[in-house]
Amino acid sequence: EAQVTQNPRYLITVTGKKLTVTCSQNMNHEYMSWYRQDPGLGLRQIYYSMNVEVTDKGDVPEGYKVSRKEKRNFPLILESPSPNQTSLYFCASSFWSSYNEQFFGPGTRLTVL
Amino acid sequence: GQQVMQIPQYQHVQEGEDFTTYCNSSTTLSNIQWYKQRPGGHPVFLIQLVKSGEVKKQKRLTFQFGEAKKNSSLHITATQTTDVGTYFCAILTGTASKLTFGTGTRLQVTL
Description:
Structural class of chain B: mainly beta
Radius of gyration of chain B: 13 Å
Helix content of chain B: under 10%
Number of helices of chain B: 0
Largest sheet of chain B: 6 strands, mixed
Largest sheet of chain A: 7 strands, mixed
Largest interface: A-B, 26 and 26 residues
Shape of chain A: globular
Number of strands of chain B: 11
Radius of gyration of chain A: 13 Å
Oligomer: heterodimer
Strand content of chain B: over 45%
Number of strands of chain A: 11
Structural class of chain A: mainly beta
Distance between the termini of chain A: 36 Å
């Protein structure tokens, strides 16, 4: 089944404790991205990647890191999480670029205490 | 950066009534995408509009792209409880590799 998977689905952590949210797609998509969703603010793009080893900042990149070492994986890294990063996070992928239909993962609900 | 305003933020209708959500930009858009997110779910792609004045239909959903390519609308005819969710528009911004979403319109449908 064609899909985007994210792990973990739920995470409660404490300020400053490094964490990684994994994202994987099995559709051989070139483009991958991360979004955070907060009430009243919609979906805001954090980082995106056009291809392996090519990443770029979205609208809200501060406090986040990403890497794209393999085509199928695009992990989101929070080196030192803070409470304002408490949010619902979505990974998405598409065939070529943001111009194409985005396929979203199921989401990761993160709480930073 | 480039933004898109989406209105209304929330609408509550009775089943059978029509519903419309609008997205407006101050600049000309290359295209616009629409997504639906059910409560507790993830966004799901509905459609993409590219041409000026374009109108596309999916059963009870009608999507329009303005003549000036600065606005778009999603109209649902005779809503059903299955239409409940938040509807987002999304536009390409920056280098055309970034995707910016509107704040969404939450639709509630009651019997």
